[in-house]
Amino acid sequence: EEAVEEEEFDPNAELKAEVAELEAKVKAARQRTWNAEEKAAKSGKIGYMRLAAEFESYRVKVQQDKKDEKSRVEVDVLRRMIDVVDDLRAAPVVIPATTEAEESIHKSYQTLYTQLEDRFKKFGLETFEAVAGEKYNPLLHEAVSYVVVESEEEVAGTIKSQVREGSRTSKAVIRKVEVEVFEEKVLDVVSEDAEEVGEVVSEDAEEMEDVVSEEERIVDETEAV
């Protein structure tokens, strides 16, 4: 005899199933929320780091721009004032004092000159010179005159002598060294070419005269016949 067990009837089975389904949905929703929060946190951190890096780059650029602008202003001031300093330094020699009053004025000028020179030294201003025989460099030298090469020891494009010293800082050349520069004998070359051309023209003229004379002789002989 087979025993048939009847399943017990649970009146809350349907309700329990709905509860289990709701719990699963809640769990899934919480998981999605956690994932979204974690993603947002990571994204926010990356965004903050990117923003911080961009701000640091901007800060460095602004500081460099300020530094460059300050350097440009310093160089401009030095270039405008250096001739004034030279004039003050040369004043006692160019206009010597002959009276006590003039001597007092000269002392005042020299005091001003000393103060300006001290300020310039704080900017790092220093003098530099050109050496005879070195190659002319337009970035450092300013040619105020040219001297024609006269011997084998003299080389075109090199410095013959210095006229006035230059000034510079670690950032820029404030005033170039004024120099005399050797150059080739251009005029001699032109003269030699002109002489050669003149000789050729003279030879051609003589040949033409001979040809004309020969033609005249032939014409005379023909007429005589």
Automatic annotation (TrEMBL):
Belongs to the GrpE family. It comes from the Eukaryota. Residues 12-39 form a coiled coil. The lineage of its organism: Eukaryota, Sar, Stramenopiles, Ochrophyta, Dictyochophyceae. Residues 197-213 have a biased composition (Acidic residues). Residues 197-225 are annotated as: Disordered. Residues 214-225 have a biased composition (Basic and acidic residues). Pfam families: GrpE. This is GrpE protein homolog. GO terms for molecular function: adenyl-nucleotide exchange factor activity; protein homodimerization activity; protein-folding chaperone binding; unfolded protein binding. Keywords: Chaperone, Coiled coil. The keyword Repressor does not apply. GO terms for biological process: protein folding. InterPro entries: GrpE (IPR000740), GrpE_CC (IPR013805), GrpE_head (IPR009012). Signal peptide: none annotated.
